[in-house]
Amino acid sequence: MSLTMMPERQGxxxxxxxxxxxxxxxEAACSxxxxxxxxxxxxxxxxxxxxxxxxxxRINISMACNHCDDxxxxxxxxTRAYVKYEDTGAVIQDSMVCFGCQxxxxxxxxxxxxxxxxxxxxxxxxxxxxxxxxxxxxxxVEACLGHALDFGPRERLGETHDQVARSIPGFPTPDITxxxxxxxxxxxxxxxxxxxxxxxxxxxxxxxxxxAPRVAAPSGTEKQAPLAWKSLRSSESPLVAFTLIAQGVVGxxxxxxxxxxxxxxxxxxxxxxxxxxxxxxxxxxxxxSTMHLGxxxxxxxxxxxxxxxxxxxxxLFVGGFMTLLLAxxxxxxxxxxxPPLSTALGWATVLFGVxxxxxxxxxxRIPARPFWDHMHTNIAFFKSTLLLGxxxxxxxxxxxxxxxxxxxPHAPWLALTSIALAATLFGCAASRAHxxxxxxxxxxxxxxxxxxxxxxxxxxxxxxxxxxALAGVLAGASMADSTPLAAALAGGALVLAMAGEVxxxxxxxxxxxxxxxxxxxxxxxxxxEQLARDTGLAEDxxxxxxxxxxxxxxxxxxxxxxxxxxIAPVPEPEAAR
Amino acid sequence: MTFPHDITVFKSDYQDRVxxxxxxxxxxxxxxxxxxxxxxxxxxxxxxxxxxVTVRGKLGHPxxxxxxxxxxxxxxxxxxxxxxxxxxxxxxxxDQPFARATWDEAFTRTAAEFTRIQxxxxxxxxxxxxxxxxxxxEFYTLGKLVRGGLGTNNYDGNTTLCMASAVSGYKxxxxxxxxPGCYDDFDHTECLLAFGSNLVECHPVIYWRLxxxxxxxxxxxxxxxxxxxxxxxxxxxxxxxxxxxxxxxxNALAHVVLEEGLADEAYVAAQTSGLAEWRKxxxxxxxxxxxxxxxxxxxxxxxxxxxxxxxxxxxxxxxxGINQSxxxxxxxxxINNLSLITGNVGRPGGSPLSxxxxxxxxxxxxxxxxSGLPGYRLLENPEHRxxxxxxxxxxxxxxxQKRGRAMTDIFPAIEAGEIKxxxxxxxxxxxxxxxxxxVAQTLKKLEFLAIQDVFHPLPSAEFAHxxxxxxxxxxxxxxxxxxxxxxxxxxxxxxxxxxxKSDLDIFLGLADAMSMTHLIARTPxxxxxxxxxxSEGRPCDYSGITHExxxxxxGIQWPAPKADAGEAPQGSPRLYTDGGFHHAxxxxxxxxxxxxxxxxxxxxxxxxxxxTGRVVEHWHTRTKTGRIGNLNKFSPIPYVEMNSRDAAxxxxxxxxxxxxxxxxxxxxxxxxLTERVAPGMVFIPFHYARGANLLTLGLLDPHSRQPAxxxxxxxxxxxxxxxxxSQEV
Lengths: 577, 729
What we know:
The complex is a heterodimer.
Chain A: E1 11-16, H1 25-34, E2 44-50, E3 57-63, H2 72-76, E4 82-84, E5 91-93, H3 103-107, E6 114-116, E7 121-123, H4 129-132, H5 139-143, E8 149-153, H6 157-160, E9 181-184, E10 192-194, E11 201-205, E12 211-215, H7 229-232, H8 237-261, H9 271-291, H10 310-334, H11 339-364, H12 375-404, H13 410-441, H14 443-455, H15 457-478, H16 483-511, H17 526-534
Parallel strand pairs in A: 1-9
Antiparallel strand pairs in A: 1-8, 2-3, 4-5, 6-7, 10-11, 11-12
Helix pairs in contact in A: 8-9, 8-11, 8-12, 8-16, 9-10, 10-11, 11-12, 12-13, 12-16, 13-14, 13-15, 14-15, 15-16
Chain B: E1 28-33, E2 42-48, E3 51-57, H1 70-73, H2 75-80, E4 89-90, E5 99-100, H3 103-121, E6 126-130, H4 136-150, E7 155-157, H5 164-174, E8 191-195, H6 199-202, H7 204-216, E9 221-224, H8 230-234, E10 237-239, H9 246-259, H10 265-271, E11 272-273, H11 275-284, H12 287-294, H13 298-310, E12 314-318, H14 320-323, H15 328-341, E13 352-354, H16 361-367, H17 382-392, H18 407-415, E14 421-425, H19 429-432, H20 436-444, E15 448-453, E16 466-469, E17 478-481, E18 486-490, H21 503-513, H22 524-535, H23 547-553, E19 556-557, E20 588-589, E21 608-613, H24 629-632, E22 639-642, H25 644-650, E23 657-661, E24 666-673, E25 681-685, E26 712-719
Parallel strand pairs in B: 6-7, 6-14, 8-9, 8-12, 9-10, 11-20, 12-13, 14-15, 15-16, 21-25, 22-24
Antiparallel strand pairs in B: 1-2, 2-3, 4-5, 4-16, 17-18, 18-19, 21-26, 22-25, 23-24, 23-26
């Protein structure tokens, strides 16, 4: 799907990298004009470096929004906060519409949209269209002191600049979004450039197309995340909960519906509580993912962009699934609908649920996050569905049988446990293949793999062993000959499976390395930001690192906590000596 | 399409949605000149509802034509920054908290303490250390108050920490202070030599002038700097010199110029003296000798000398890399020598142009009477003393017959108990002077310390007995002089906070309290009129300058003699265009320079060179920029640049912490690994309180008394991350 916009006069930035001195005037002019707080910057200057003293060279890169021909932010935004204007080609985001899901910050390869946790919204460069309409260049361009940054109609940049290259070392591939930025570099580029921030990437000359990112040489000591739950916590934890719950519930409901089709059900009276439990779980999942928004009160805007956004579609189908699930549960309580209708309702619910998972997969198929943009994401999400759902229903089946004293229905039991076992084994194989593909792909994909196997190596190994154990328990369960043993094994397997899935899904969010622009020592350096948060430095607004707010917490730092001058009350006048 | 203040419509046809773009309307734009560095950019401040809300570079301004660096762009925030001192404060002992006082009490107490101490210990027991930050009118008034009233000879400015070597070098070579060139020289020069100047970070708008000239017309740019700064990287040739050895390089460059017959012999014969003596010394400094001292290959030195010597017009610029050295004054003289023998003084595109530090370091040199008497007059000259005594209507005997202590000698004199009271004006020695612990011990010894500043808390104010809250830039009217001698105006834009007063009004208040009211003109315009009269016929002639003329012209370069009626006063872009140097014989001196390596050099116990300097986002001791988040965020805590190979050897990774030890003290800072510094060298920005200057030694230049901040030895080791990283300002 592509936007069929034909801007009349697509403006574009031109950046002569060899002229940029890293003086931050562009950045300051942008922040000043737009009244941005220190922890938000729409234009940012980072650098890459090469060589040894005294043949050291630094390339500063100033980057804002590139007002792309294919604005993935606009397409991804569920609220439709983005508009690409036909007259200027500007892609403009409206913070008043934004509800702070941050999806645009995931899909943009350049880090142009910036989330402000204090405001709860994203904001980004507006191309200074107010200046453009009166014939002025954007404020950043006007402020440039190095003759590095320029702006003009894209098709005419070649008239004023001798080079209009599409990339520069440190700049992500322009293929994803077709950005409206062109580059020049006078002099010779080195073969390799390193980054000053903690992102473990370097840029190496390719034979074909410029410089491509590769994992930088290991820096020596490996800092491993300790094997503790808190290592797995992140601001995306609500999404771990939401995706796993949605997948588990859809899988469970599909399994129940499938059993219904062959006239098998858990012990009488167990279906209704099961459905109620599913409603409660999914309700919690939806609630927690809503509270994860910067501004949850505008949750209803989530379906504004069904035309382009997989997030909107995900919400439509998962929301629809939730509604139909409630209807099914209501029907289970009241019996209002007779079998043909109730069966139809059941299958419609399954259809919504599965479509919801399909949309969810596409939400994560983000080209700017190559670790996710792989068939593995499809497999992982459906694996979770097919592991957790059937296993939960199998447990219900065995528990129901044990409670009621009825025999365990052998064929359904074998089917459910086999599906779970197959999903587990297939998942393990897919992870392996994914790892190999990531290693081969290099760049951010390889950097993610590096984080997975080194920083989170403990968890990765734990996860693998849990998979083996789970496969063993499931194999045992499928062959169990007594009902209590079956129930116990199914219960154990479910606990193991859930723990394993939580670890795996948490890692999915934790290790992904997006394509990014290089940072500097303090600015846009994830390592320094973490240090600032760990040491409390981030509490000082003048440090420019947004404090780590848990989503949904009210902003707690409207004003900087600075000491006031120590002034005591006016004393009695003192006689001059 | 219009852009209202607020956003609004959400239509189904999204093309009609009006983008929400912040508009920042102002009631009025007021003309000022930037209060940070000495580039002297024209700035208009936007005011809304009596508050400074934005700035913009003044389009068409002769210095910056609308351009500003990031500090200038955020300058209105310096006015609105937190922790502005709003009330006078007093205490009898530094163990007590300050108590709020009235201005009357503060003036009376300060005057009484000065009087008491002068009566008890002598006139010179009170010292005054001012700044390069306040207006020329204020400097002149302060000078009158100190020289004509207090009468102490311990009176100096913090410019001793930054420009004293340039002043001293100019005086030794040309007979008077004053940079001969101007920024317009970039458009005429055929070769630029930049010594110890990181123009890109320290004077970004001057760099823009240079780069713009280069875009129009290529000419070779040669940067001499121990670090690979962005300026070094942008240069055609970079000479990574061993710290502190510039004099040797300068001698060697002159050696090649003489040897290869590239000197302008006619100019040398007509305009200089001392050639024979000088030549004898120069002959000892072949490029081969220099190579072993400076760490630059002899052939490279020859190549640079040829480029410089063969250029039609060639200019030199320099900043702290030259000035802040035990050979600072000699370095400046060396640059002047090189310029003189090639005839590159005061010609378009050819001058030795010192790039000044503070916004009004020039103003303090011209009229503060710190190192003499107003208008580049000397205390040592009886005629000058007579002129000023008559002009001010004071007894000539009030004036000492020779210059007293410089700032860097005042502090040891406090230590020695010779000085008992100190008045600090807009300067923060606890951060800016070398060897912080010693400065703290010194300040503790004072019986009375008065601090006149705009922010509280302030590191140096810990030791103060009186705090006099001053108005900041744009809260008062007056003039600055920039690096190219351009006198320029700052209009008053907003009122100072609380009871803060302009520095001029504080001087007036103290003059009243010390019964010197008769001495002092009451308004900035009146003071400027007096400066015009006192400077008539002097090298820095202001007699044609009025505030109105400055605003109309975007500044005027002195000498600017009185214009005929109805004519606009004409400034002077260059000095010495027809010779006319200020030595008695009208010639410039070629002064021989012998090099004596007296720095603290790395050894086995302290194996690293420590170099200090600036970064673009911070201004001096960070009292302003540390309080502006959008500047401070680029380097919110101190850090050390160290070579990656050294770091690997010491087991230090990026964002680890390193303990830096010198013979003075130690400091733990975050490490930035980079090949921008040489192996065996570390660089720490000096802006931070209890930062790099804990470590510095600050040996003094014998002529200028300026400390060497950039050459000392330290040891480096890996350290644990300190528990508290928050940085005071």
